[in-house]
Each structure stands twice: as C-alpha cells, then as structure tokens.
Amino acid sequence: MNYYTENQLVNFKQEKFFFIEVEEKNEVFEITLNRTSKKNAIHPQMLNELAFALQYAQSTKKVRVLVLRAKGDVFCSGSDLSAMQGKVDKHNSSIGKPSKEILLVNLWTGFSKPSLAIVEGNVYAGGYLFLACCTYVVADNSLKFSLPETKRGIFPMQVMGVLMRVIQPRVLLDWCIRGYEIAANKAEDWGLISRAVDKNEIESVANDWIKEVIENSPSAISLGMEAYKNIVDDEKNQKYLKSMLDKVINTKDAREGLQAFKEKRAPKWDW
Asked: What is the pTM of this model?
C-alpha cells in the first residue's frame, strides 16, 4: 500500500475529497462512499481517494479501527465501466494521481487494521470486494444478496476469487453459476456478512464491536492481521482472474446478455 508519499500523507487533513467523506474521531477512521447518482460505482478518481484514505489510516497510530459505510440505497455497485473508458465526472477533488496503478480488487492489500463495513444498501458486482476484505460486516437484515452475472453472459471472476476467503468454495461456485438471490440471514450463515440485524440496531452492534477491538492489544492485532493478509492476498491469482474476466466480457454471450438485460427479455445464447 504505497500509492502516495509520506509528504502527501502529512497534508491529509488539508486535502479535499469529492466522492467519499472521511472522519477521524476517537481512534476510529470512517470512510463514507458518496457517489449516489451512480450507485456508488467506483471510478478512477474515487479509487484514488479511497487508496489515499486507506493509506493514511494505515500509516497513523491515531487510528485503531476503520469503518466503511455508504450513502444512498446502494452500498456499492462495483467498478464504473463507463468511467474506466474515460467518462469521468467533473470534480474538485485535490487527491493527486498515485505512484502506480490501483486496482479495486487490490485496494485493501497491505491494510492491516481491523475494519468494519456497515451495509444498509444493496451490493452488486465488485461491491462484494468490500464485504470480503473487511474484518467484520454488519448488514440490514432486510437486504437480499445476489450474483446475477451469468444471467448477463458474464462470470464474477475476481469477486469469486476474493469471496473464497469468507464463503465455502463449493457453495460459492454454485452461487456464481446460478446467480440466485439469498436473504441476509443466509448471507450470515455463509460468512458473507458477520451479523444481520434490524436497521435500528446496526449502530449499536457496530459500536459494541469497535469497543471490543479497541480494548485489545493494538500491536498484537496489527501483527496478526499482517500475517493474515500475507497468507490470503494473492495478486498473481487476481491478475489471472482479471485476464479471465476480460476474456468473458468479450464473448458473444456477454454482449447478448447485456443487451437482453437492457431490453428486458430472455437472452439467446450462442454456444
């Protein structure tokens, strides 16, 4: 996690964020996704802001816990494909370009502090990467979760790779293949989320978790998480899965699936 220099991080509190909101208080660093007009889809400048904020939180001993939440009715819908092709929102973000390319799937690589995701909106595509990479996930128990990519002629390659950290592989593969919807309580049983609770209980559950973490040894937790990250983070596998995703996106089935979705009809697969 060396996208920005120490000199840049020193001026963190003077920087201006546009697509996320940040707050540091009582050893907790909070990031809020705030691109509601695009369902909190991640585009390059938003990714730069997230990387800058995460690197800052990792670098300072004033932060013990990171909290991730989102505004709007969608927590995150993954990468913004149109933005990746050069269509970027106007903004006045002051976060500069990183020293190397940032991939959404590798965003959390090197971050070794406890993190909590508060999920109160739907999750799609690459948005699941946040759920898989956070230490603990509290979600509204009225939410439904699905991976409908195969219905669009695509396969959730990189999402599958990361979700293998938290979901039993056979269960995960079946979910990726069939793309069905599951309720929050089943998502909890699978390990996709840690707790499914009533919406009015989310903050209380989150605060209890934060309190327990902060009461424990920061050095022990940091070293333990560093060891865990070194075991599970595999950039080589993610590069392979990205190449496979690119391959499936360029198939006739992918084009037909996306067109059928837009036209609200059943796809006609060309096998």
From this structure: 0.90
